[in-house]
Structure prediction request, 124 residues.
Amino acid sequence: QVQLVESGGGLVQAGESLRLSCAASGRTASSYAMGWFRQAPGKEREFVATISAGGTFTDYTDSVKGRFTISRDNAKNTVYLQMNSLKPEDTAVYYCAMRGAKMRGRTIPEYDYWGQGTQVTVSS
Prediction:
């Protein structure tokens, strides 16, 4: 079975940066699109970023454009989310997810596998 493990979360001050990693096993990640989602307490899980299987195409939710960058290293079966200029409203549990298709996707139903999440807390 597919397993996704996120890492890199933590507590930072506003304006600082973090890089999240998502390591995949049980499937060759290069064949599938990946995404990052986040969920704050009391809120719905929301889309953050996505990347196509080959890494050519990406997409972001408007609130993180220009601050976050999704990338992947298929040789390592790993996807990254570089988060710069972090804001308190970025505080959430961040989840990586894998599609059963190659093309990027923005919605939760498009994804088949999910990690357990990593906490990102941004203080003001």
User: Anything to note?
Assistant: The CA atoms of residues 70 and 81 lie 5 Å apart. The two ends are 40 Å apart (CA to CA). The mean pLDDT is 96.
